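ok new one. same drill as before - structure tokens go in, u give me an amino acid for every spot. 482 of them this time. try not to just spam alanines like last time pls lmao
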């Protein structure tokens, strides 16, 4: 029989931590004297009490490792329970969202998707704005740990290829996870603080710099303004682009870097390809903006760099309404969102390494057709890739495409038009943020969608952030058999 105590213990700890994080927006509202502080006090008490009860109830599981089924369950369950508790301040606070809208917003925050149902952000209490940023910041560090510890262990989507070069976690997932999380957390915190200081230096207010740094480093994209990052057009766009790129690189390389090993970062092929793709796309977009639209070259480069980096990393900020840039660039933005950043980063979507493995496998198959008696081996970063990794990657691509198709079909059944349904499905499964069209595009939000569509999208965000197959595994009958 599946022992749920270790899962309950860890989940309870995380719910309690979430409750303690609510004390920060509570203090902001007290300082602002806006009368909203009680919202976070009540929400924090609920989280700490419920989480504490779970910890005490399951406390006799301390010291026990997690088996494979418990790990699958923990990985998927946490990303449902935390949004439920994270939604409480959004329901009882100044936003007064319905349960559907509050859960959608909290799920979008913790999965760092960045889609929002809230309008009038400019006039909301600062506590709520900070809470949205905290949700994304916590989701960012959470997904790094999941990607570095759990997904390689669960052999999800080809992530097992990073086990040997990252950390060995076999047989003792939780203790090793704590060690990995502590090292990565320090780097994540330092980069966030650096981002805050740079934003302040470039003219942002302290509070805006704080919230936007939280959502930049998490590649989440929640902003304090309805105009998103368009409020800060100028040098801040360059700074944000740099930090979004840093957040989209593998954090395990930063761990190696601070331990005196700089070579792995520059030799990592996914890092080189990621930077190369951004450079090419920015060049192409800039040329189109200068030649077709009345853009000054510097403005074209700045807007192209910022928005390309934002969508490809899955951050979802928008400094302009790129729906006005013509059909060619609109399609570019749609497809780059399906590329993503590097494995083991806060970035989302398919990830660069999977495309590399897919193309390497295709190249080997072509070579075998040309030379049937030759021996050709698929390689990644100079190492031979096993068949189980390739099979996992190809399965991920199939699940990814099929999932987008099913979600788009389900959204169409709720009455959404073709563009909204397809782009909504893609942006949710790939955790990008804005979709296409007037409704959910960079100049709109998701508030106008009906409740069934919002639930479908929330589920899609959950599926996409956990790399699909981790969730699908627990939905099978065989998973629950003893």
């Amino acid at each position: 029989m599946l022992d749920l105590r270790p899962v309950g213990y860890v989940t309870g700890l995380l719910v309690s931590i979430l409750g303690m994080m609510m004390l920060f927006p509570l203090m902001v509202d007290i300082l602002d004297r806006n009368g909203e502080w009680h919202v976070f006090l009540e929400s924090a008490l609920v989280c700490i009490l419920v989480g504490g009860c779970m910890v005490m109830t399951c406390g006799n599981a301390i010291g026990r490792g997690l088996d494979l089924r418990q790990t699958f369950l923990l990985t998927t369950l946490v990303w449902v329970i935390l949004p439920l508790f994270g939604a409480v301040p959004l329901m009882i606070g100044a936003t007064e969202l319905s349960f559907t809208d509050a859960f959608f917003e909290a799920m979008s925050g913790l999965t760092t998707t960045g889609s929002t149902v809230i309008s009038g952000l400019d006039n909301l209490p600062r506590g709520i704005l900070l809470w949205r940023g905290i949700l994304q910041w916590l989701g960012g560090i959470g997904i790094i740990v999941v990607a570095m510890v759990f997904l390689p262990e669960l052999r999800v989507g080809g992530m097992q290829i990073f086990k040997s070069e990252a950390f060995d976690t076999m047989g003792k997932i939780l203790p090793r996870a704590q060690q990995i999380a502590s090292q990565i957390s320090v780097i994540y915190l330092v980069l966030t603080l650096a981002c805050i200081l740079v934003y302040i230096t470039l003219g942002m207010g302290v509070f805006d710099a704080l919230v936007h740094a939280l959502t930049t480093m998490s590649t989440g994209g929640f902003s304090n303004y309805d105009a998103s990052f368009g409020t800060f057009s100028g040098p801040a766009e360059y700074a944000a682009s740099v930090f979004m790129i840093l957040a989209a690189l593998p954090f395990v390389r930063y761990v190696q870097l601070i331990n005196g090993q700089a070579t792995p970062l520059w030799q990592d092929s996914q890092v080189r390809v990621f930077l190369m793709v951004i450079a090419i796309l920015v060049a192409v977009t800039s040329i189109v903006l200068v030649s077709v639209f009345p853009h000054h070259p510097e403005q074209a480069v700045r807007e192209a760099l910022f928005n390309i980096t934002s969508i490809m990393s899955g951050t979802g900020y928008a400094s302009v309404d790129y729906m006005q840039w013509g059909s060619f660039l609109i399609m570019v933005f749609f497809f780059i969102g399906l590329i993503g950043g590097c494995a083991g980063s806060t970035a989302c979507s398919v990830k660069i390494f999977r495309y590399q493995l897919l193309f390497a496998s295709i190249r080997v198959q072509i070579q075998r057709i040309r030379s049937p008696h030759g021996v050709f081996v698929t390689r990644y970063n100079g190492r031979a890739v096993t068949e189980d990794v390739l099979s996992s990657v190809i399965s991920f691509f199939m699940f990814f495409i099929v999932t987008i198709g099913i979600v788009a079909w389900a959204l169409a059944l709720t009455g959404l038009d073709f563009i909204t349904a397809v782009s909504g499905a893609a942006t949710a499964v790939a955790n990008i943020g804005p979709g296409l069209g007037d409704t959910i595009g960079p100049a709109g939000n998701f508030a106008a969608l009906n409740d069934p569509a919002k639930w479908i999208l929330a589920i899609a965000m959950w599926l996409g952030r956990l790399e699909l197959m981790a969730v699908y595994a627990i939905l099978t009958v065989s998973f629950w058999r003893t």
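The chain is about 65% helix and 0% strand. and btw Residues 126-154 form the longest helix (29 residues).
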